[in-house]
Amino acid sequence: xxxxxxxxxxxxxxxxxxxxxxxxxxxxxxxxxxxxxxxxxxxxxxxxxxxxxxxxxxxxxxxxxxxxxxxxxxxxxxxxxxxxxxxxxxxxxxxxxxxxxxxxxxxxxxxxxxxxxxxxxxxxxxxxxxxxxxxxxxxxxxxxxxxxxxxxxxxxxxxxxxxxxxxxxxxxxxxxxxxxxxxxxxxxxxxxxxxxxxxxxxxxxxxxxxxxxxxxxxxxxxxxxxxxxxxxxxxxxxxxxxxxxxxxxxxxxxxxxxxxxxxxxxx
Length: 267
Description:
With 267 residues, this protein is α/β, with parallel strands linked by helices. Helix content is 43%, strand content 18%.
């Protein structure tokens, strides 16, 4: 993968296809390659150029010491967009990537044509703060990735239909067991999801936005996604039933359809 320099940091990235650029921002503790499972193919087939990258904290991108803030992650994305000459472009992110996308749209409207947030929120309540910090603490321990942790992680990422499907559940168990989230970088990314209420600030976004919620998401539940959609002017809201936090992997056809319809209207 090529490497781009943004200030003192380096970011690994890939460019797929040609056309109007769309930058995809990954969830916490997740490689950019996750987008290649479903979204890259759909977007390039629709005539878009897709840029994916590994966020700070995910090797081979730089893994600087924490803490990481949403403002840092948004500045990283802005720097990459500037370095690659992509702006103004569409951006889309999932989970921490979605929270980064909304901050990027707020801070650098000159670089953002439209923003899509898949599973997002504008505040961190007690449960999600406790969950993120507990996960980060565990990621910093030398040995991590046992069966219990893998199963617990699956219950946060996927909806009931996926967990009840023996083949799908076994496949995801094997993937997560083989590639557990660990290390200081992933921990700092998880901690970046802990922040005070940003709803008043998000009211300053001037670019068209789309929030996509997943009906069985326990990490960024629909109620929290609706709070973002309500706070952001010019924001649309869509909800995919029966999917969990990684609904863009569980229901890719529905998610891609909503995403492509929105982007087409922004042309």
